[in-house]
Amino acid sequence: MPIELVPLNTSVDCSWTIPGSKSLTNRALILAALADGNSMLEGVLRSDDTMHMQNALKMLGIEIKDIDDTTMLVSGGKQHLKPSGEDIFVGNSGTSVRFLAAFASLIQGRTTLVGDEHMAKRPIKDLCDALEQLSINTECPTQCPPIIVNGSGLNGGTVRIPGDKSSQYFSALMLIGGMSPQPIDIYIEGNLVSRPYVEMTIQMVKDFGGHIDDHGDHFTIHPCSSYRPLSYHIEPDASAASYAFALAAATQSSVKVPHLNGDSLQGDVAFVRVLEQMGALVELTPHYIKVTGPQQLDGIEIDMHHISDTVMTLAAIAPLCKEPVTIKNIANIRIKETDRLTATVNELKKLGQSVAFGDDWLRIVPQPIQAAHIECYADHRMAMSFAILGAAHAGVTIKDPDCVSKTYPGFWTDLKEIYSSINQQVSW
């Protein structure tokens, strides 16, 4: 059922506990699967995307036990890997299909990855081409999933990948490249989008015992035969935390996100600096980040190339700003769960906003907000971003609230608790 948001009836001063990072969880699952022995993953995210990754690895021979709601025990090692006798379903999980396509290159035999109707529109050709350069045969007639990987193991080599579509192609190879007996060099063609996610991958590979050199224009993955098992704690999801921070900024409130700090592996933590430029007060400590909103947000012109998962968070609260908001260098968001640029423009126009846009930018000139039912396009970030606008201003209804299960199944419950903290009742 749709959810009709109502504005908070007063500012809040509260803590919002964010679940574990999807990006870290899915990377940690791959690394633990390749580590010889038992790895304990703590703080894991339980969501559609991470469920697809967990189920896929089980189908490929890895034993994974649920210890509790946020802890998994992964019994890894290359010796356990085996082809799946069935197609592996990954829903609309981009990290899963890309990381698993590379992972399947280590398995002797045929692995077929299939997704839902939305995944069938998400390009994966650049990764297929990269695997082919490493002598791994792939079959992907539509250049989007489904994809078949005929695994034969890695033997090192040189790869060139366009950098403008997804950093996940690079991360996919980095996660498994150490299993090659010879080094692998990955060269960037053009500019690399979302580089902080690649830096995250490099650090996590190091944590598990691998080594990757970053030369700026290319990366060298060194052989390590296997990763080491370890206990690994996963941080709260910085992309999901952007909704908590945006709520504070948009409602003259103070919201603290515990267990997240400025030293986070996740590049999207930089979203608080965007809000700071717009007039919000940001407090960074070793144990939490706190944002306090101003009386009204200033406008901004900002390049969000490296934190593109937070583009919609900013765009959704732009109608509340004093001046226009211009977001640049974001062409890659057009090949996410949906064409996020077009989707955002469409829904802002429904809300009565003046919006101009091009292939890689949009500009929002705030206008009086009109009531609208927001289409989500099966995209979790559309639902959560515009929910924050609805908590700040009347007239916002989210048509498909259940799509948040992709990365944040508890979002509506957690948002409801914010209302409860000021004794305001809501209907969902």
Quick recap of the structure?
Helix content is 30%, strand content 24%. By secondary structure, the chain is an alpha/beta fold. Helix 5 links the parallel strand 10 (157-162) and strand 11.
Keywords:
four-stranded mixed sheet; 2 domains; alpha/beta; 428 residues; single chain
Count of spatially separate domains? 2
Q: What structural class results from the helix and strand content?
A: alpha/beta
CATH homologous superfamily assignment of the largest domain = Enolpyruvate transferase domain
Calculate the mean pLDDT score and round it: 97
Describe the structure.
This protein has 428 residues and is of the alpha/beta class. The chain has two domains: 201 residues, UDP-n-acetylglucosamine1-carboxyvinyl-transferase, Chain (Alpha-beta prism), CATH 3.65.10.10; 212 residues, UDP-n-acetylglucosamine1-carboxyvinyl-transferase, Chain (Alpha-beta prism), CATH 3.65.10. Helices cover 30% and strands 24% of the residues. Strands 2-15-17-16 form a four-stranded mixed β-sheet, with helices on one face. A four-stranded mixed β-sheet has the order 4-5-3-14, with helices on one face. A hairpin with a 7-residue loop joins strand 8 and strand 9. The longest helix has 13 residues. The radius of gyration is 21 Å and the shape is globular. The relative contact order is 0.14. The mean pLDDT is 97.
How are the elements arranged and paired?
Blueprint: E1 3-4, E2 13-15, H1 22-33, E3 37-42, H2 48-59, E4 63-68, E5 71-76, E6 88-89, H3 94-103, E7 109-114, H4 125-133, E8 137-139, E9 147-151, E10 157-162, H5 168-177, E11 184-189, H6 195-207, E12 211-214, E13 218-222, E14 231-233, H7 238-250, E15 254-258, H8 271-277, E16 281-284, E17 288-292, E18 300-303, H9 311-317, E19 325-328, H10 340-350, E20 354-358, E21 361-365, E22 372-374, H11 380-392, E23 396-398, H12 411-420
Parallel strand pairs: 2-15, 3-14, 6-7, 10-11, 18-19, 22-23
Antiparallel strand pairs: 1-23, 3-5, 4-5, 7-9, 8-9, 11-13, 12-13, 15-17, 16-17, 19-21, 20-21
Helix pairs in contact: 1-2, 1-3, 1-6, 2-3, 3-5, 4-5, 5-6, 7-11, 9-11
